[in-house]
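EF hand, Devosia limi DSM 17137. Tokens?
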Amino acid sequence: MKKIILSSLVVLGLSTAAFAQAATDFVAVDTDANGGISLAEAQVAWPDLTEDQFKAADVDASGELSADEYTALMAAAPAN
Ligand SMILES: [Ca+2]
Ligand SMILES: [Ca+2]
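Tokens:
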């Protein structure tokens, strides 16, 4: 019985970790799957993201974040 409970906890923990990671994954944030992350899409995952921060991350000023731009933004995000 004890063993079953422990196994359940492990599974629960792994699921939570996977979900947390997926929520900020480029593909998950790019909700319309057009290959770029718009400000609106970014703010779903990062509610505190400002337009200025978004524009700063949009290095080529295309109006959307590419996978590389998004990765760089995530790496620079202090709280995440
Ligand atoms: Ca998109
Ligand atoms: Ca861009």
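The chain has five helices and no strands.
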